[in-house]
Amino acid sequence: MARPGGNITGVSFNNTGLVPKRLEVLHEMVPKATTIGFLTNPSIQTSEQNLADMETAIRRVGLRMIVLNAGTGDEIDAAFATARGGRIDALLVGPDAMFNRRRVQLAELAARYRIPANYSNREFCEAGGLSSYGNARTQLERQAGIYIGRILKGEKPADLPVQEPTRFELVINLKTAKALGLDVPPTLLARADEVIE
Q1: 23 φψ region: left (φ > 0), alpha (ψ -120 to 50), beta (else)
Q2: Rounded to two decimals, what is the model's pTM?
Q3: Of 2, 25, 31, 119, most Cβ neighbours within 10 A?
Q4: pLDDT for residue 168
Q5: Cα–Cα distance, 97 to 30 (Å, whole number)
């Protein structure tokens, strides 16, 4: 990462390793939850690591987990149908580009089935999702732009270290919390980088 070599450098939008913190936020928001659903796309490279992180975090706080696999829009619908009927009390949506593209669908399904959910980035909350914790994408996008400028001015990509996220943000959608009948703890609101009202 520090010296990528060849013609490669870049910015990592990696959200792996944030699952325990995201579960902490979700559990603080829904403290009576005993069963947490974990929506994951089994076809992505980081799926196994995210699942292992979730299993460790779930054991640490003494909760039960139900894994919901989805790799398509129809499978997302099926996963929520499985979650319906009180099988899960809250949902953690794993980081995945396909989920990001389907963020409106995910937020609408969570609202329809009245499932409090935590997502990997702010765009989900802007689409109506309850909460998110993830890397500050604007910081990474800005860094990517800086790298493009440096490369166009003659620097070699091999000499530019791959940048990883250093800033993370918590976003809470109070409108969604109210619709779900949740009282967001003041301590969580105080830690939020943005509150959507």
Answers
A1: alpha
A2: 0.85
A3: 119
A4: 86
A5: 26
